[in-house]
Structure formats: C-alpha cells, structure tokens
Amino acid sequence: MKAVRVTGLVPGGAEAESSAKRLELCEVVRPERRTPSDVLVRVLCVGLDGTDREIVTERYGVPPAGETALTIGHESLGVVIEAAADSFLKPGDAVCALVRRPCSDPDCTACRNGQQDFCESGRYVERGIKGANGYLSEYYVEDAKYLVKVPLPALPYGVLAEPQSIVEKVWDEVQRIQQRLVWQPKTAVVLGSGPLGLLAAFTCRCLGLETIVWSKSSDDSAGAALVRDCGAVYKQAGVDSGSDAAPLSGYLRQAGKRADLIFECTGYSPLAFEAMTALGPNGVLALLGVTPGSRSIEIPADQVNQGLVLENKCVLGSVNASRKDFETGLFRLQQMEAKFPGLLGRLVTDRLRLEAVPGLDFSRIGIKAAVDLVPPEQWAELISGTGSDAVYSFSV
Ligand SMILES: [Zn+2]
C-alpha cells in the first residue's frame, strides 16, 4: 500500500538534520490485525496541520523504534474494513483515531488511568508525530479503544474531529476550573486565525459568547471572512497600535471589552504573556499554541503577577485530548454546521491527493489542507451506516 513518509530520520528519536529529511510517497506493507481488539481501517481523508509542517521542515518527528522513517498524519477519517464480531465497531463504520498512546512508566498516574493526554513522564507515543506511524497511508490497524465512531451526518467534516478535540478538552477544563465561582462569561478572545483559532472561535459562538479574533492575518483574508461569518469580530493585530507595548490590552480597553476567556492559538510566546495582562478579572487564559523556538523577552513581571493575584486570574496550558473530547468534538462540529452552514467546508481550503503530498508547499496552504485517499464523492458508498444521528454531548 502507499504511505507518505518522512525519511532520513535518526533511529531512537535523535534530532535529524533537516537537510537529510525527505517527504516521500513510499510503498509499504499493508498492516494486519494481530489481536482480537485490532481494527483494520481504510483511510478516507487526512488533515494536515502545523505539526506536520514542523515534522517536514524542522527538527521534529520521531520514527518508530529502530526505524529511520515515519508515516505522517494524525488527523484522520477512515472506514472500518475488519473488526472482531463482538467489537462495538463493524465493517462500514466511519471512524477517526486518537493520536496519543500511554507511556509504560509505572509511576505515570495519568497513563496508568487512561489519561495519556496528561502523561507525566513525557514518554508517550503519538501516531504520526512521536514513535509511531501516522495515518497518511491507505490503511492502518488500531486497537478499537483508540477509535471513535463518526456519525453519518458528520462524515463531510469528520476529519476535523482531532483539532476540535483540542478545543473541547480545554473548554471542559475551563468549566471545571470556573466552578470556583459563579461565572457568567460574556466575551471570549481568540488569538490567531489558523485552523485551531477558527475552530475555537466557532466553538465560542456556539456557546453564545461574544467573540473577538485577534490575528496578524490581513483583514481581507479567508480566515477573517470566516470569523465574520460566524458572527465574531475580526481584529487585525499590528495596525493602528503604533508603539503601544501592549496592543491587545489597549485594543480591549478602547473597545470597552473585558476578556472573560482567552484562547491563545498562535504559539507566539510574547503574545501569551501579554494575554495574561489583557485577561479580565476571574478570567481564564488557555494556552494551546506550541512554540518550537527559544525566544527570550523582557516582561513586566510585577504587573503580570499583581494582575493574576488581585484579579483571581487563571492561566493553563493544554495539549492533546481524550476519547470523550473527540466525541464531544464530533457533536460540536454538527452543532457548528447547523448554526453556520458551509463554514467548516470553507475551513479546508486545499484538497489534494496522496501523490501530491511530497510536492506540497506548506507555506502556500490557504487555511487548512486535507488529503483525500478516496475521493469524497465515493465516501458514502463505503459507509454502511444507517444514518442514525448518534450524538455525544459531555460538556456543551
Ligand atoms: Zn505517561
């Protein structure tokens, strides 16, 4: 079968020189089920994101033990081909797959309790990222417990379940934290208008929050249009702020807005620190952006600390997601499609076939790219769903 792999990696996970790395379309052995709980899945579509770009272009990405190549792709949509008769999955079911697998450290309480998204040892494995092959291949085999059934109505945008699960995990955390008081959030601020920022903005709108998206992308970008079309406000960063050292705080003050909730989705660390000051009283700042660099900046530490203490503010980091976050994410995506028809479709700006991936220029992707291993118009004939609108809602 065909797979898109990053080759030229160093076994054992040492950082490879990026010059030795290549993204290639390879012929690999089709995997087979080995245990009763294994499920064979045919891949329909794989979404690409910033992590894939970093694996391809930067010092990132760890191959499986003893190997020098890694199949990329961690945002998947597929159809079950083979599963055990007593499995909750049957051939013809549409599924997406979780990314992280637990570490084997006996002292990692999180992994020992099935909460590998909170792994303490750092020795977890992530398919398509760290120590295990991803899903950008014609087939994969995975244990049923890491597969989530995709309801038929969610099929066209089911490939977005993984990025949406990131938003759902943090929203769930925010709600738990805010049980510390009577909290009636009105305004959410999303930093960044990439795929994650846009999904966070759509989510905030589904939650009925007044939403402001602050991003450096131009006011006439496709992302800005999506922001406005979900009823949020788009504010281009870097214009009319002059020499303001804290442009986000200045903008919010001038607009008379109090940020009850901030989702930081850029990974630009100076903005993460500025957001601590911009955050309103009793608010939560959720940091979701990964920062691969090593930047140092000067920060007004007294002012930041004073604000966090005197206004009961909370800052939390969040990564990866659990099974229930995928399930809630699939529910939310259906909610978004009902509320803002067509927006999720417009989020995927670039669709390509598997053969075109090695030649892909990641810097030219509009908002989000998706790789169709099976043309979308053929998906329905591979799915044997009854059309039952299975919905999951844990914390919506
Ligand atoms: Zn662990």
Automatic annotation (TrEMBL):
Under the heading CDD domains, the entry gives: glucose_DH (cd08230)
The EC designation for this entry is: 1.1.1.103
The protein's UniProt keywords, in alphabetical order, are: Metal-binding, Oxidoreductase, Zinc
Q: Look up the record and name the cofactor or cofactors this protein needs.
A: Zn(2+)
Example of a GO MF term: metal ion binding
Glucose dehydrogenase C-terminal domain residues are 157-372
Entry superkingdom: Bacteria
Q: Does the keyword tRNA-binding apply?
A: no
Concerning InterPro entries, the annotation shows: ADH-like_N, Glu_dehyd_C
UniProt xrefs under Pfam families: ADH_N, Glu_dehyd_C
Q: Where is the signal peptide?
A: none
Q: Which residues form the Alcohol dehydrogenase-like N-terminal domain?
A: 36-151
Q: What is this protein called?
A: L-threonine 3-dehydrogenase
